[in-house]
C-alpha cells in the first residue's frame, strides 16, 4: 500500500493449495504425520468478493494394525491449519475494507447551507500522510474548468525552468500601449514589477508577456509531462488559461499539487523554493499555508453575470507530509466569491481536522 490505496494480494479466484503428493500420502500411511500446507501468497482477498478454494486429499484410510490416533491428529492439524487460513483471509479483508472506507471522507454540505446559497462548490483535500481524500459531499471532481490565475503556479515554474525569468526578482516594465489598463485593474497592476510581485498581485499582463517569451511548444511539453488538465495550448496564445482552451478539473488540480509538493515534476529545488516563498499565505503552529486564487466570468466579458473561481494550494507540515487541496466555486457575481473561496476552503480544512483554526498569521 505504498501509494495509500488498498490492492488485492492476488487476482480473484486463486486457489489455496493444500493437496498432497502420492509420496506424501504414502508417508502418511506410515504414520509420519505432517501438517497440511498452504501458500499464503496465493490467498485472494477482495473488498467485494473473496474466494477460498481448497483441494483436499482423499480421506485417509488408517492401517487397522496400527494406532488410530494418527488420522485424528492429522485431521485436527488440518482443521487448525484451515481455521488459520480462514482467519487470515477474514482479518486481512476486514482491515482492508476498513482502510478502503477510510480512504475517502465526505464532508457535509447541510451544515453550511447558509454559506452555499446560490453557489456551486466542489472541494477535495488529500492528506499525503494518511492517503485520505476529504471531499465535500456531492462534489463534481471531474468536470474541467478554466484554471484562470491558479495557472500562475505552473506558469511561474515554467518561466524559471526555461530561464525566461532568471529569478523571482526578474523585473518587467509595464507597457501601457501594449497592455492598456482595463476598468477592473487594481492600481498595483499599473506599474512595473518583479515575478514575485506579479504572482502575489496576480498581475495578468506580466504573465501574458511571459507566455509570449516562453512559447507554445514549451508550454505544451511541460503541461503534457505534468498531466496538467487537457494541456491544450493554441499556437501563439498568451491567454489560453483565461477562459480559453486550457481546462482542468478539481481532482486534476489536486493531482498536480501532489506531484508538485512530492518533488515529482522534475523542477529544480531552487525554483520550488521560489514558488514556496511566493505562494506563502500564513502559518499556525507547525503548519504553513500556500495557495493561489483564480477567477473569471462564466461568459467571457460578461462582468455583471456569474463568475467562477478557485482557491488551490497546500499545507506544509513540519512533522508530516503535506495536505494538498482545491476548491472550485461558481457564484452569482465576483463579489459573492471574492472572499468566499479562501475562507470556505479553510472552513472545510478545519472540518476535516487538518487545521485547528481558520486563522493564519502572515
Describe this structure in words.
This protein is of the alpha+beta class and 362 residues long. It has helices at residues 22-29, 69-103, 113-116, 152-162, 195-201, 204-214, 216-225, 250-261, 269-279, 334-338, 340-351, and strands at 15-16, 53-54, 104-107, 120-127, 133-136, 144-145, 171-172, 193-194, 248-249, 280-284, 287-297, 307-317, 323-331. The chain has a seven-stranded mixed beta sheet with strand order 3-5-4-13-12-11-10, with helices on both faces. Strands 1-2 form a two-stranded parallel ribbon. Strands 6-9 form a two-stranded antiparallel sheet. α5 packs across α9. The protein is globular, with a radius of gyration of 30 Å. The two termini are 37 Å apart. The relative contact order is 0.12.
Amino acid at each position: 500500500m505504498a501509494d495509500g490505496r488498498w490492492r488485492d494480494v492476488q487476482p480473484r479466484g486463486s486457489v489455496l493449495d493444500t493437496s498432497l503428493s502420492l509420496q506424501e500420502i504414502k508417508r502418511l500411511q506410515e504414520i509420519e504425520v505432517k501438517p497440511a500446507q498452504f501458500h499464503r501468497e496465493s490467498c485472494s482477498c477482495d473488498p467485494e468478493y473473496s474466494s477460498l478454494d481448497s483441494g483436499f486429499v482423499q480421506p485417509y484410510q488408517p492401517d487397522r494394525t496400527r494406532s488410530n490416533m494418527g488420522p485424528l491428529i492429522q485431521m485436527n492439524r488440518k482443521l487448525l491449519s484451515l481455521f488459520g487460513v480462514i482467519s487470515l483471509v477474514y482479518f486481512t479483508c476486514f482491515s482492508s475494507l476498513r482502510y478502503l472506507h477510510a480512504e475517502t471522507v465526505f464532508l457535509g454540505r447541510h451544515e453550511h447551507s447558509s454559506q452555499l446559497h446560490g453557489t456551486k462548490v466542489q472541494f477535495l483535500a488529500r492528506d499525503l500522510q494518511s492517503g485520505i481524500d476529504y471531499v465535500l459531499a456531492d462534489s463534481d471532481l471531474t468536470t474541467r474548468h478554466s484554471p484562470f490565475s491558479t495557472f500562475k503556479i505552473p506558469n511561474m515554474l515554467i518561466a524559471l525552468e526555461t530561464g525566461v525569468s532568471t529569478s523571482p526578482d526578474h523585473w518587467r516594465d509595464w507597457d501601457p500601449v501594449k497592455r492598456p489598463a482595463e476598468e477592473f485593474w487594481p492600481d498595483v497592476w499599473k506599474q512595473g514589477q518583479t515575478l514575485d510581485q506579479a504572482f502575489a498581485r496576480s498581475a495578468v499582463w506580466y504573465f501574458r508577456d511571459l507566455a509570449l517569451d516562453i512559447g507554445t511548444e514549451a508550454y505544451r511539453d511541460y503541461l503534457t509531462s505534468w498531466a496538467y488538465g487537457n494541456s491544450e495550448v493554441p499556437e501563439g496564445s498568451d491567454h489560453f488559461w483565461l477562459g480559453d482552451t486550457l481546462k482542468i478539473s478539481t481532482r486534476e488540480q489536486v493531482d498536480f499539487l501532489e506531484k508538485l509538493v512530492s518533488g515529482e515534476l522534475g523542477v529544480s529545488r531552487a525554483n520550488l523554493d521560489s514558488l514556496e516563498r511566493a505562494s506563502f499565505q500564513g502559518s499556525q503552529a507547525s503548519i504553513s499555508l500556500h495557495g493561489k486564487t483564480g477567477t473569471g466570468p462564466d461568459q467571457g466579458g460578461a462582468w455583471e453575470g456569474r463568475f467562477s473561481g478557485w482557491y488551490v494550494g497546500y499545507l506544509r507540515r513540519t512533522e508530516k507530509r503535506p495536505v494538498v487541496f482545491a476548491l472550485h466555486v461558481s457564484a452569482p457575481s465576483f463579489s459573492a466569491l471574492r472572499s468566499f473561496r479562501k475562507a470556505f476552503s479553510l472552513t472545510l480544512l478545519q472540518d476535516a481536522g487538518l487545521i485547528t483554526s481558520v486563522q493564519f498569521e502572515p
